[in-house]
């Protein structure tokens, strides 16, 4: 037979050589037939894995199933782990994150006590990817750092990918300078190792960082140039992220037509590919405002429908992933906590059904009465470009033990007076709580009945009032000095926050305080 004359290495070389050509299929089949004829289970797994690299999603997943099935015929735990890991990576590629996580956890279970370091760290890297995706950035950082130390000397591509993952973590935590430092290292190391395929991703992340640092023109240049390469790879998840930040930057520059084009791309990717991330939800607030300004009632109705679909998707996917990750990988939950989680999930199913029913009734009402009341509907989107406190409260229903832990974090944060630190953002506070942004905001809403900004600002103003009662000198400070005293970055923000909390301006409040003390 033809395959008997070739080694597996020779056949694999031919598979790579003929990539993109019909002849490649001949060598894919020869590789698998050789493994079957020889009864070599490990090479059969490799043969099925080869097919997953070069086939469409549906066919690739079918070959992935065969790969896992063959591995289970062996007594080799590392082989079983490898097959499940490969299947998980395949699911992750197609943004099927729940399925990917299930495979990673199975792979991890087969690797307990394994001496196969490469496989252990490869699994660890992929679990870090899921943690990063969910918003558990501080936990993912430790995993990425250990992967960097290992892969630096054992696998070039794993090393570069881990550097990118670490940079992404710091970016999502709001540490943009630290993220940029790692990006520079990543680009230099990728060049040294001749791995150019990650350049677009480092460039895109740099563009996102520049967006948050308000260097908008540099951000747009980086995002647009990287988007071209990312779309060539058919990577719709990162393409969606690129379009979102381009939309926000153009919006800030008051170029709303360009902003709308990019936001519509995000919506199109969600409609066609079913991909969405909590960071991208704001897209629909911007689109809603655009259509409200134009009084385009039909499109405003469509946006309301899309928001419902997006929220259902995020509720279903992110709650499942985060609970499963912590219970099965971290193994920090007791049996009692697991029972509480199951009970919570049942309650959530009832809640989701109720919310869907309410949404349908609301939608029917809007359809029937929206035309004579277009100003009302427009107001839904004109209020602001961020979800309201009510939105935040309903965005996610947390397990009781998770909420109690976050309540403790809130109390520690307030007692330590860390709110006096300047420039807190949502990502940084979530990291401080060892949680993610969605959970952190939900806890603040549940226990303090406030949104993120009001929570931080009110703590600072209350602190200032207490200080003024003890220190008479503060009554004579100007607004700029008072703002600096309690962590506000600008006088304007301080003045607005003070008036919102106390119902009067700081100047008026402290004038009356001085008069009272002089009487």
UniProtKB/TrEMBL annotation:
SUPFAM superfamilies: Homeodomain-like (SSF46689), TPR-like (SSF48452). The chain crosses the membrane at residues 350-370. This is Helix-turn-helix domain-containing protein. Keywords: DNA-binding, Membrane, Transcription, Transcription regulation, Transmembrane, Transmembrane helix. Residues 417-512 form the HTH araC/xylS-type domain. It comes from Moheibacter lacus. GO terms for molecular function: DNA-binding transcription factor activity; sequence-specific DNA binding. It comes from the Bacteria. PANTHER family: ARAC-FAMILY TRANSCRIPTIONAL REGULATOR, HTH-TYPE TRANSCRIPTIONAL REGULATOR EXSA. InterPro entries: Homeodomain-like_sf, HTH_AraC, TPR-like_helical_dom_sf.
């Amino acid at each position: 037979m033809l395959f008997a004359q070739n080694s597996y290495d020779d056949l694999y070389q031919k598979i790579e050589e003929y990539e993109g050509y019909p002849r490649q299929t001949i060598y894919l089949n020869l590789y698998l037939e050789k493994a079957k004829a020889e009864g070599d289970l490990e090479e059969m797994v490799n043969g099925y894995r080869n097919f997953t690299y070069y086939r469409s999603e549906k066919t690739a997943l079918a070959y992935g199933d065969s790969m896992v099935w063959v591995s289970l015929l062996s007594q080799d735990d590392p082989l079983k782990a490898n097959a499940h890991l490969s299947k998980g990576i395949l699911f992750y590629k197609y943004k099927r994150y729940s399925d990917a996580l299930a495979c990673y956890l199975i792979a991890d279970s087969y690797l307990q006590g394994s001496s196969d370091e490469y496989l252990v760290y490869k699994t660890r890297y992929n679990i870090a990817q899921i943690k990063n995706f969910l918003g558990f950035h501080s936990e993912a950082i430790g995993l990425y750092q250990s992967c960097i130390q290992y892969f630096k000397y054992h696998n070039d591509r794993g090393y570069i990918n881990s550097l990118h993952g670490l940079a992404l973590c710091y970016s999502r935590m709001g540490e943009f300078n630290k993220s940029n430092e790692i990006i520079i290292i990543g680009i230099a190391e990728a060049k040294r190792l001749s791995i150019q395929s990650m350049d677009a991703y480092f460039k895109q992340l740099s563009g996102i960082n520049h967006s948050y640092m308000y260097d908008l023109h540099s951000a747009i240049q980086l995002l647009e140039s990287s988007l071209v390469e990312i779309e060539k790879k058919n990577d719709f998840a990162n393409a969606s992220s690129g379009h979102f930040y381009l939309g926000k930057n153009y919006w800030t520059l008051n170029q709303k037509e360009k902003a709308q084009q990019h936001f519509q791309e995000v919506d199109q990717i969600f409609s066609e590919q079913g991909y969405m991330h909590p960071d991208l939800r704001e897209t629909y607030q911007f689109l809603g405002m655009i259509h409200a300004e134009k009084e385009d009632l039909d499109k405003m109705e469509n946006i309301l429908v899309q928001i419902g679909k997006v929220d259902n998707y995020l509720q279903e996917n992110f709650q499942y992933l985060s609970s499963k990750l912590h219970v099965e990988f971290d193994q920090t939950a007791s049996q009692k906590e697991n029972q509480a989680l199951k009970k919570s999930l049942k309650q959530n199913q009832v809640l989701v059904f109720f919310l869907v029913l309410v949404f349908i009734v609301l939608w029917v009402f809007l359809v029937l009465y929206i035309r004579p009341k277009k100003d009302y509907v427009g107001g839904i989107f004109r209020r602001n470009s961020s979800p309201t406190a009510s939105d935040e409260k309903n965005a996610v229903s947390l397990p009781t033990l998770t909420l109690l832990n976050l309540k403790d974090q809130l109390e520690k944060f307030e007692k330590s007076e860390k709110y006096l630190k300047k420039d807190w953002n949502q990502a940084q506070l979530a990291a401080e709580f060892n949680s993610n942004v969605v959970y952190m905001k939900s806890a603040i809403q549940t226990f303090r009945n406030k949104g993120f900004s009001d929570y931080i600002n009110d703590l600072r103003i209350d602190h200032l009032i207490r200080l003024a009662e003890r220190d008479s000198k503060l009554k004579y400070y100007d607004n700029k000095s008072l703002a600096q005293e309690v962590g506000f970055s600008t006088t304007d923000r301080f003045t607005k926050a003070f008036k919102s909390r106390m119902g009067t301006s700081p100047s008026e409040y402290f004038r009356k305080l001085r008069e009272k003390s002089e009487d």
